[in-house]
Amino acid sequence: MAFNANTVWEVRVDGDDSNGGSFNTNALGTGNTDYSQQAAPQIAVTDAVTNASTTITSATANFPANCVGNGICIEGGTGAITRRYVQILSRTSATTVVVDAATGLTTGTGATLKMGGALASPGGAFNSLLVSGNVVFYKYNALPFVITSTTQGATGGRISPTNGVSYSGYDTTRRLRNWDANRPTIQLDASLSTTNIVSSTSYALIESVILDGNNITLGTGCAHRGSTWRCRFQNFTNGGVTDGAATGITEAAFCEFTGNSGAAAAQVYHGIGCVAWNNSATPFQFVASARDCISFGNTGVNTDGFSASRKFWNCIAYGNARNGFNLSSAAESAAYNCISEANLVSGYVGNSALPFVVNCADFGNSSGRSGGNIRDLDPINLSASAFVNAAGGDFRLNATAGAGALLRALALPVTFPGGAGANYRDIGPIQHQDSGGGNSGGPVRILAPNTWHLVG
């Protein structure tokens, strides 16, 4: 029997893969308690009895009345049970429970049984039991989870996402789409090479975690078909996040990329509200589109702020080692409402197809606005820096005439077709706030490289 779709799993650095690790949230409404949200098991006994059915007994377990829905890990004993994860469907008495599956529960006595308690390995054996709708929560700890094995589904192993499953980091707010300041780190061990942390062709969500490549040789962060949301990818030498199957649907939203080298940090189809800094290879190579993204201070002789994307919307390229926006990779490339400033070669570079650069601004690029081969429509040439303090990572538009002030309420479309209404969005991803209060729109506001967040 498969685990219930409403099952949540808990993984903690101080947990143990022999713990129960899960809870069926359907049981909350009937007065039961989720005992997976703790490092230690609630029950740990070595006298469990199985009889090849879904009934498990233990003279010493003292199963509490609120145990239904909790996960059990059972193994060993005279029946030589290979480690099994099951869930409690009902409690018969303090010594007897009925679980959701009998597979592997061979007849025997003296089995080790643990109920509750978190698991320890992000890519552990429990991953093979996941079904669509499940959520795996990784609890923050100052110490990282460490991937020590290239094997998926093993202790210390890599993560293999399942279709429809969400994998979410948290500290104090245990829910999807949380904004906890602290995010758990999952790191590749220094002994590994040519491997990744997450790999599959499944449609899954990875969110609110820091993935750290530890600068191992050919280390990759995440290769899958789904979405990555509010993740940081750091210290990878072969890509931070990539499309696992060239499907055209992968996205990175509100993610950070820093300290990566050797290959583009973001190689998925869509980038939304992402920030990249201090990478030594072009960080953003979104295949289809980049919207509201910022690329700044990236080093390396061939490092552009952005390249390969077919469409750039409301993005910033600042202080990168080569060009701000390289539109030479696709015939249909175009940039709209973007700002390219202080890059060490050109602001915008195209190809023989003459990609469009529309309503975009520039200032202070070493070789000028254009490296050639673009159709430059309604160019905006600034007389000074557009930003409050770009060197300090503050990319809000300043109020300087001919600079930041010129870009306010100027983004296309200024008016929507058909008389649907006027648009007062600024050029670039970060929208200025008028003194009267209230954000004027736009999703992203950057405070500093390591502390960016969304408002509005």
Structure in words:
The chain has two domains: 7-115, Elongation Factor Tu (Ef-tu), domain 3 (Beta Barrel), CATH 2.40.30; 125-397. Helices cover 0% and strands 34% of the residues. It has no helices and 43 strands. A hairpin with a 4-residue loop joins strand 40 and strand 41. The two termini are 44 Å apart. Residues 438-456 have low confidence and may be disordered.
Main attributes?
456 residues; eleven-stranded parallel beta sheet; Elongation Factor Tu (Ef-tu), domain 3; 2 domains; mainly beta
How would you briefly describe this protein structure?
The protein has 456 residues and is an all-beta fold. Helices cover 0% and strands 34% of the residues. It has two domains: 7-115, Elongation Factor Tu (Ef-tu), domain 3; 125-397.
